[in-house]
Amino acid sequence: MTIATTLTPCDLDAIAALAKSDLAPIARKIDEERVYPEAVLRAMGGAGAYGTHIGGTDAAVDLGPAILSMAKASETCLSTGFCMWCQDALAWYIASSDNDWLKTNLLPGIAKGEILGGTGMSNPMKSIAEIEPLRLKGTRVEGGYSVKGLLPWVSNLSEGGYFGVMFGVEGDGGPRTVMAIAHADAGKGVKLKLDHDFVAMGGTATVNVQFRDVFIPDEYVIGDPAPAFIKRIRAGFVLLQCGMAAGMIRSAIDQMEQVKGPLGHVNQYLERQPEDIEAEYDALVAEVLALARTPYDDTDALWKRVLQARLKGGELAVEAAHYAMLHCGARGYVSQGAAQRRLREAYFVAIVTPATKHLRKMIAAL
Ligand SMILES: Cc1cc2nc3c(=O)[nH]c(=O)nc-3n(C[C@H](O)[C@H](O)[C@H](O)COP(=O)(O)OP(=O)(O)OC[C@H]3O[C@@H](n4cnc5c(N)ncnc54)[C@H](O)[C@@H]3O)c2cc1C
Prior knowledge:
By secondary structure, the protein is α+β, with helices and mostly antiparallel strands.
C-alpha cells in the first residue's frame, strides 16, 4: 500500500519488508550489543516512514501512516521503533512551526532519513506538568540565544544531528520559555556522552547532552514564546508514540498465538488469552487512527482522548508482554527468547515521557 503526501510517499509494504529482511536478523544484536540500527533507520526514511505526517494544510495532516510504520518496526524491535518516533517528532516540530528556514533547509533531509535526530522534550514536558524544573537556561544575545544546561537523555542522536529543545529565558521582556531546534555540534559547545546503562533500549543512541553557552540562532527558533506552540504540537507528540505501543502489543499477541499448538492445552487456563488482548488492541488502534486525523485540534476534549489512548497503549503493552511471557514459559525465559526481551522493552512504553504517572496526573488535572 502506497500513501501519497505532499512531501514523500510512504510505502507500508516496503517498511514491513525492511522490518523483516533488515531488522529482524539484528534485533537481538541491537538489544544485547547495543548496536544502533542506523542503516535500517535511514532505509525506513527512504521508504517514506518519516514524511507522511508533515506538509500540506493542517486539515489534511494524518499521522496514521507514520504510526503504522513505527508499529511495524516496533513489532520486531522497540529500540528501532523509538528511534523512528524521535525522527518523526523532530520532523513534526519543524513542520508545525512557521519557520520557513528550517522547513527549507532541514525538513526534507529529516523526512528522508538523510539527517537523523530527535527530541529533548521530556524535561520540558515534565516541567510544564510541574513534575521537575526546566534544565536549560537561555540568554538573549545578538541574533539568537545563548543556552546552557544538561539534558540527561536524548535518543537517536549522534554528532551532527538535530533535536528539539525548550529553554527558559530570564529578562528580555520577562521570564518565558522558548522552543528551538539544536544542532549537536561539539565545536559550538554541545557535548554528547553515550548513556547505555539501561535494561533494554540500548540500541537507541541515547546520550547525555551538555550545553556550554551554545549559540542557537533565530533561524532555529520554532516557538517564542513556547506555550502556544507546545499546545499545537502536543497531541501529535503523544499520539505518534502509540505506534510503539501498537507494535509491542501486536508482537505479544503473535507470540501467544505461536505457542498455542504445543502449549494451548495448559495456556487456556491463563487469565488473559490472545483473543482478549487482540480485542483491546483493535479498539485502541481504531481510536488512535481516528485521533491521528485531527492532530492540530487543540481542544481539551481531544487532548483528553489522546492522553487516555496513550495511557491505554502503555498499560496494554506491559500487560500483553507480561502475558506473552507467561504463555511462552521457558521458551521465553531463555536468554535468546524474544519474550524476555520484549517484556523489558515494553516497560519503556510506560516510562518514556509522558510516563504512566505523568499521564495520570495530566488526566486528573483535566
Ligand atoms: C532509553 C531511554 C531513552 C530516552 N530518550 C529520551 C529522549 O530521546 N528524549 C528525552 O527528552 N528523554 C528521553 N528519555 C527520558 C524519558 O522520556 C523519561 O523522562 C525518563 O525515563 C524518566 O521519566 P519519568 O517520568 O518516569 O521520571 P522519573 O524517572 O520518575 O524521574 C526522573 C528524575 O529522576 C532522576 N533520575 C534519573 N535517573 C536516576 C537515577 N539513576 N538515580 C536517581 N535519580 C535519577 C532524574 O534526574 C529526573 O529528575 C529517555 C529515557 C530512557 C530510559
